[in-house]
Amino acid sequence: MGSQYNIGAYASNQGMVNVQGDAIGRRDAAPMPRPRPRPRADVGILTVLTVEQRAVVEVLRRHRNYRSAQLPSGAQAHEADVDADRGTLHVAAVQALAPGPRSAAMAFQHLQYAYRPPVVLLVGIAGAIRPDLRIGDVVIADEVIYYDSRRETAEGPRRRGHSDPMAPVLRHRLNELFQRYGEAIPVAAGDAIRVYQGPIGSGDAVVTDADSDIVHFLRRFNEKTLAVETEAGGVGQAFYERIDEEHSVHGWLTIRGISDLADKHKGYDRHQFAAERAALVMDRLLPLLNVGGHNLGGDS
Fold first, then answer.
1. Domains contained in the chain, CATH given
2. Nearest Cα to 146, choosing from 60, 254, 59?
3. I need a labelling partner for 175 at 20 to 30 A (CA). Which of 25, 34, 241, 291 fits?
């Protein structure tokens, strides 16, 4: 049976605190172990909906050394090692607590605190606003247009959108993806995913009207806007604020499977299909994301 020590304290009448016990001054008590630092990830992945996280995890399970662990924030992280063009990429994926830009921004901060990835991917679903897009297509944003900034007037809202472009280093990697696969990425025998690169709109408002003021604004802002979603604006702002203090952060981008046409027919029945398509395109892009090659697969 191990040694037992008695430590006590009480206040005297003179206001002094008296401490007594047979462990006072002992040096043989073992210090509390410090938590083991996590290996730095080369690529971080953010999702929002459970169906999106499930699709990403299914892809990561196919790679080497898949494992799962709980972060101090309570979020469950999923890790794997992905063979890349040069070396191995350590990849970590986490899910935001709730939909919307604020929760996505917090998830970005938790991901950076835990793994410090130089590249972050936001992977999930979106609603198309370009007429030639179909359910199951995938869009990769080279520009995110935030549509919620506005002034309310008697004549209606006056929107003051702003946009965040893709970091040049990731644009080069995206160019390589299209150079290798073209605009239809094969994922199975007889199946290829149509992939589009262009602007997307992002904000708190969920768009379920193809004739909404938001859709018209986005088309005026950039006539090539592909789709709308609700998280990329928050991640873009978090990245912008992080890059000034963490110079090893190189860039981020969002990959979105088209689940609806942002109209009155918007529903949940195609979420899984669209999320799986986005995760498959992510899988093709991952081996090209060795922008932090000095730290591939290693701890820091």
1. 41-293 (3.40.50.1580)
2. 254
3. 241
